[in-house]
Design a protein that fits this description.
3 domains; 14 strands; about 15% strand; four-stranded antiparallel sheet; alpha+beta
Length: about 450
């Protein structure tokens, strides 16, 4: 592969400024801040890469055919079923770009589509591309999405790159909705979902930025309603939860979930997954299911750099999230579905996102995507799940009284969970039965913790 240089920018301070440069070869990737960026007192590339600490040094990531997770989060994953990736690669082909390998494709996607996504880090091919993109602040009109499902897919690309108007012709009037569940970044009217969308906001606007999730009904019937129910339940449990609106796209159920990585002025707020944070200092964290949830305690306890200010609140949050995931049948609580929001020293766990009880679907029926508390490793007598919950609490320095309070609260909260699941008309009977059985089993077993 040819060496590649990319330009890294941010709007975290309100105005667009260059953060640094990423230089990628076939053996490593090197990121360096600009000489003036540390003086801006703005968030860095990562919570663990503070500009002041790396003012005079380069952050090196030794490659094994992949980018650092901080940058991989800005592009669709290399999954042949990922709809967004297919769309973006078609966009590259129309520009005459034919990547020779998946890694070359990652770099090309990062250069041409790695901006305007979740969080505050934007990547461009060069400075001129960045300046041109930031200069165009028009989000366009609110347009009915219609049954053809044409506007959002096509104009999403135009929002990413002003030269992408050709995609309108290359996709045709009725682009496919096949592949993985599309998650589109769009804006909806200030009063909520009414069937109209526009491109995401770049400046302050009365429109609401959302992640629009479209259900693949054949593969995941009832998914949108399941996620809505899970969001409601997490809010009742005391978690911060984004607003959402039920929607319909081309006859498919959908959910428009409000983005929380923008402040009221539409300025990006730093948001970073625990996967990216852990992978920054651990060579064995390669995938978002690697490691253990217990290792998040080390992130919470970091003193240099200090990330989390209220450590007790963070520990309680994590333990409560894991137990509620167990009780609701969300086996998909991996390191990408847990994030910190805010700047170093003031960061906290983000509002809950993607809490869907995926164990309702047989292909996702696992206890937890990432191990915790040595589950499955303890050869002692008794229930291995209870041993794991106790060990996990110990790794988070939670007292027995903390555990008892959390468990008692969640058992009471989920007492009517079978009725909640049964009330979801769009969820098939066999999926309801599977999820209810899982819940009842976990609910009964966790009573031994109090």
């Amino acid at each position: 592969m040819q060496d590649t240089q990319l330009s890294i920018w941010t709007r975290a301070g309100g105005d667009a400024v260059k953060m640094g440069a990423l230089y990628v070869t076939d053996i490593d990737a090197r990121f360096s801040y600009t000489s003036e960026y540390p003086d801006y007192a703005l968030p860095g590339l990562s919570l663990v890469y503070a500009p002041d600490l790396f003012r005079d040094s380069t952050i090196v990531h030794h490659l094994s055919g992949s980018l650092h997770p901080r940058f991989r989060a800005l592009i669709p994953p290399a999954d042949e079923q990922n709809f967004q990736r297919k769309l973006m690669l078609a966009f590259l082909r129309e520009k005459g770009i034919e990547p020779a390998s998946p890694f070359d494709a990652d770099l090309a996607l990062l250069a041409h589509t790695g901006h305007g996504g979740i969080g505050h880090v934007d990547v461009f091919a060069d400075d001129a591309s960045a300046e041109a993109w930031y200069a165009n602040t028009d989000s366009g009109p609110l347009v009915p999405i219609g049954e053809q499902f044409g506007f959002s897919l096509k104009d999403m690309i135009s929002w990413l790159d002003a030269d992408a108007r050709f995609i309108l012709e290359s996709l045709g009037p009725t682009p496919s909705v096949g592949g993985a569940i599309p998650k589109l970044l769009v804006a909806i009217p200030e009063d909520g979902w009414d069937g109209r969308i526009s491109l995401p906001n770049k400046t302050r606007s009365t429109r609401i930025d959302v992640v629009l999730k479209i259900e693949r009904t054949q593969a995941y019937p009832g998914l949108a309603a399941l996620e809505a129910m899970a969001l409601d339940l997490h809010q009742e449990a005391g978690f911060s939860v984004p607003r959402y609106w039920h929607a319909e796209v081309g006859g498919l159920p959908a959910l428009a979930v409000e983005r929380f990585d923008r402040d009221p002025r539409c300025v990006p707020v730093p948001l970073e997954s625990l996967y990216a944070i852990l992978a920054a200092g651990a060579k064995d964290i390669v995938r978002h299911t690697d490691g253990t949830l217990d290792r998040i305690a080390k992130v919470i306890d970091l003193a240099e750099p200090l990330l989390v200010n209220d450590r007790k609140a963070a520990r309680v949050h994590l333990y409560k999230r894991v137990l509620l995931a167990l009780l609701t049948g969300n086996g998909d609580l991996h390191l990408e579905n847990l994030s910190l929001i805010g700047v170093a020293g003031e960061a906290q766990f983000s509002p809950v996102y993607d809490p869907t009880p995926m164990r309702a679907y047989s292909m996702h029926n696992m206890l937890c995507a990432v191990p915790f508390g040595g589950y499955g490793e303890d050869a002692g007598e008794g229930d291995a799940l209870l041993h794991a919950c106790a060990n996990f609490a110990a790794s988070l320095s939670l007292a027995k009284s903390d555990v008892e309070d959390i468990v008692s609260e969640l058992l009471a909260l989920t007492k009517n969970y079978p009725e909640r699941v049964d009330a979801i008309d769009s969820l098939p009977g066999e999926n309801k039965a599977r999820l209810i059985e899982i819940h009842r089993d976990i609910h009964q077993r966790l009573t031994a913790l109090i």
